[in-house]
Amino acid sequence: MKSSSLRLFLAFSFLSLLLLFLSSSRSIFSLQNPTPSLKSHPRLKVFVADLPRSLNYGLLDLFWSLPGADSRIAAGDPDAALRSSASLRHRLPDPPPYPENPLIKQYSTEYWLLGDLETPPRLRHESSVAKRVYDSDDADVVFVPFFAALSAEMELGWGKKGRFLKKEGNGDYRRQREVVDRILSSEAWKRSGGRDHVFVLTDPVAMWHVRSEIAPAILLVVDFGGWYKVDSKAANGNSSHMIQHTQVSLLKDVIVPYTHLLPRLHLSDDRNRRSLLYFKGAKHRHRGGLVREKLWDLLVNEPDVVIEEGFPNATGREQSIEGMRSSEFCLHPAGDTPTSCRLFDAVLSLCIPVIVSDNIELPFEGMVDYSDFSVFVSVSNALQPKWLVNYLRNISKEQKNKFRMNMARVQPIFEFDNGNPGGLGPVSPDGAVNHIWRKIYQKLPMIREALVREKRKPEGVLIPLRCHCS
What we know:
With 470 residues, the protein is an alpha/beta fold. 38% of the residues lie in helices and 10% in strands. Helix 6 (148-158) packs antiparallel against helix 7.
C-alpha cells in the first residue's frame, strides 16, 4: 500500500516538474522570438474611399502618355524608354509603374500604400498591419486613394509656367476639387467630420488649393515646412503658438519618410571611406534653406569635405552614390523644407547623417531613435567657422562604427518597394508601409475621443478647428 502510494507520489511529482520545465521553456522561447500571434497582432481596418481610377492609377496612364520629358530635367530623362514604349501603344502593366523621375519618385508613398490595400487577401502576409474592409461602418480609418503628389508634379513639370498657383487652366486644381467634392459629400466624412480620413500629401505642394477643407483629416506628410508659410499668411502674422485650423500637428498627423533614390548598401559591403563630409544639392534655396548657402560658403574649401551642385538626372545619381558611399558623414541642412530624400539616401548608403536644424520632424519617432545613428547640430554652432569639421573629426572610430551598425539595423524601416509590380503583394513586416499603418493605428484613441466629444456637442455650437499643441 505504502509502496504504491510512494510510486504515485513520485509519478505526480515528475509530471509536475516536467510541466514546469516545458512552461518555462516556452517562456524563454517567446522572449527570444517575440513575433506576435495573429490574435495579439494589431490590425488597422481600412476602408478605401470610392474615387474613380482617373485620380490614382489612371493618373499614371496619363503620365506615361505625356509628350516629352519633365521641363525641370535638362537631360537624361530616366522615364524616356518606357514613355516611348507607351507611345507605341505597347501595353503597360496594371497598375502602371510609378515614375523613376527623382523629382516625382521621392513622393511615391501614395503608390505603395494603395498597392498594399489593393493586394488580394490570399497574397497578404500575416504580419500586415492594414486590413482592408469594404464597409465604412466597419473601418477604423478611411483611406483617400488620390495620387496628390503625382498630380501636382505633372502640373509643375508639364504645365504652363506659373500656372500651378492659379486655378484657371490648372489640371491639378481640377483634380483636387473633384476629390474634395466627392469626399466631403460622402456619408463617411459627414459622420466623422473627416477626422478618420487619411490623405497622403508627401509633396509639400500636394492639395495646395484645398488644404483648409481637409484640415481635420489625418495627413501623411514628410515634414511641416510647407504648411507654416500658408498658416502665417492665414493668421495675418499672428505669432501665437496655437495651431490654427490650416496647420498640421503631431497629435493627429503622421510624418512619413521620402522614398529613397539611391540603392541600399549592406554593412558587409561597406568599404573604406575617404572623405569626412559630403553634400550634393542646390546651393540656393528659399526660407529655411538660406542656412544651406551659409554652410556651403563655410565648408566648400575645407579639406576632406566634398560640396557640389547636384542635378536630378542619371549622372547626378551616380555621383551621389559614389559620394555617399565614400564619405564618413553626409550633411543634411534644410532646403525649401526642413527634410529631403537626401537624409534617407544617406541612411541607405550607411553615411552618418549630420542634421543641421533647430526644429525638424522625423518619421517614426517613438519607434526609431535617430540619435543612435545621426549627429544633430544646432544652426548657431554649425555656422561658426571651423566648428562643424572640428566636431566631426573628434568623433571616434568606435563611435562611427556604432552609428553605422545601428544604421544598418534601421535601413529596412525606410524601404517602400516590396519587390512586386505595382506593390501588389506582401509588404515587408518591418518596412515603411507597415510602419506608417502602425503610426496611424496609434492615432485611433484620439480619433475616437474626438468623435465622442463631437456627438455630445449642443446643437448650434461651433468648435473651431484648432488644437493647443506644439
